[in-house]
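DM between two lab members

TW: hey, do you still have the UDP-glucose 4-epimerase entry open?
JB: yeah, one sec
JB: this one, 344 aa:
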Amino acid sequence: MSQKQILVTGGTGYIGSHTVVELQNQGYDVVIVDDLSNSDREVVDRIEKISGIRPHFEELNLIDAEGVNQLFKKYTKLTAVIHFAAFKAVGESVQAPLKYYQNNLVSLINLLNCMKEYDVPNMVFSSSCTVYGQPEELPVTENAPVQPAESPYGNTKQICEEILRDTVKAYPQLKAIALRYFNPVGAHKTALIGELPKGVPQNLVPFITQTAFGLRDQLSVFGNNYDTVDGSAVRDYIHVVDLAKAHIIAAERLLDGINEENYEYFNLGTGTGSSVLEVINAFEKVNGLPVKYKVVDRREGDIEKIWADTTIANEVLGWKAERGLDEMMSSAWAWEKAVREGDC
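TW: and the structure you got?
JB:
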């Protein structure tokens, strides 16, 4: 049986690289396309070191329509696209909205045009729980209303989902699944790939690990007077490997033709909310290290608490998160040490 070939956009990024590894472990032939704007070419070497297989790699910015056309012309055996490539810094999107709209929307449109042209029928789209805003009910189900976006970044995810929904309706040969994920953290057990933000981290866990290593003086906890177990904000944290595996299950759902509609969407989380202080405490306990932090004012735009209802992902998609908070924190620290000590 010939290997099924899958295109992974943003495949040298954080979630993309873990997904490529899992795809290769399942026997898929993977083509990575990435413009390396927020990642490094040597990630391809690390993927090969983990899986024993070197994926195809093309350096390309997906807003280049002719470049995308040439990509599809070169790889004629593609059966699906897993689309991660997007700008994703919320703060930057507020400062540079046009940059975000151009990159995140045009890249998707170019891909869909070529999928239609070259008969590549299946897309798994990287979406986000930001589409729900501050939900009225918890946990968040897929039936929760999509709220007005808090940022241009969040709005691009909403608009991309609308583009997908309209496109598969107009062209029934195309099918798409959007995965709305909550908060990915952790790293591969080999400590060869993980989250490596450029500049000051925007996310909690890299800030914890950098503070523990001494790169940051202390961590700021934004608010301790929320209506939560300890006053700090609550999120649903999910291990990046669990998340990666969900993309493969979604792709196989499309490839095997068991999707119930041409456009589906699923929440991906653990179904459990953890507060900022609980995450810090878990890190300290698992790794035996103190983390310096101070409580500061709430951050504008932050929601109080959100976590997923994973029933539909568990029962319909057939996926379930397996790794808990302790494993997330231990793998994140192993990765941070490997990066800083030059072991990867």
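TW: got it. The radius of gyration is 19 Å. The longest strand covers residues 122-128.
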